User: Fold this.
Amino acid sequence: MLQWLAHFHDTFPAFNVFRYITFRTGGAVVTALLFVFLFGPGMISQLRLKQGKGQPIRTDGPQSHLLTKKGTPTMGGLMILSGLLVATLLWGNLANPYIWVVLLVAVGFGAIGFYDDYLKVTKQTHNGLSGKTRLAIEAVIAGVGVVIMMNFGRTGLSTSVAFPFFKDLLLDLGIFFAVFGAFVIVAAGNAVNLTDGLDGLAIVPVMIAAGTFGLIAYLSGNVVFADYLQIHYVVGVGELAVVCGALLGAGLGFLWFNAPPAQVFMGDTGSLALGGILGTVAVATKHEIVLAVVGGLFVLEAVSVIVQVASFKLTGKRVFKMAPIHHHFEQLGWTEPQVVIRFWIVAVVLALIGLATLKLR
Assistant:
């Protein structure tokens, strides 16, 4: 919205700064951070009042969680999404279609997660919205978003998969790119959802990935930098740096309340939406495979669950002491802060590797 002030730079020269994505991204970070700081305590109080017993704790999970996390309210993702929406609408270029596609996925996935959390809290059970129903709705929302991006993207590139470390290697999937793109978005949303099991465990890797993809979006949307790095130039995608900045700021604000011991959990409301945002930005910037590197921690969490379930069904034996894998390390004797901080370190390393793919071509 504030981007339109740049049109009056002839009268007010200072307004020229609103042209720059970097300036507006910084504004989005600060705005989202302050919004969550200011309104977070009130939202947490309301969630605690409405939910009573808070999020039901898994009885088959670590026994210590039944004591340390009991009564903590969930749906804290509403704090993050509110801050993100306010900052994006304020600082983003609302004429840019990528902005609206990302917000469509964020709100859609957030609504699914909210309903799932609502069912769990009201029934005090882990049986929320059925998995098949949830995945089907997510796939529809993600598919619509991808089709929209395919229609206004550059012919040939908008339906292709780009490969890191290669300058010109593209695999054109045609109309089937809609399926591939939707898979990336849905997988990202559910992978982050599986990672959200310890205080602060999911939000920091999400912020790291958001910062990384904010830079990737800015570079991919700048014809000079894209040409220098020999990455694929995508017209208009640089504006997604503002969304990533808003996500980073809202995440920082949320971490203040989610740091151990957490005052609030993000719940499916937040984790599904945040993963969906990262997946959508990756599809828009043509860095879907790089997302698997930068978000490797999320991939590891998801794979650990798939392996555990498959192994138990096929052989009756478990590969891990408990899945997702962060619980496996808890069972090995790692304290919760050790698991969380060490996973943060892994996320930083993976982000650096992902950024290296921009130049190593």
About this structure: The radius of gyration is 20 Å. The longest helix spans residues 21-51.
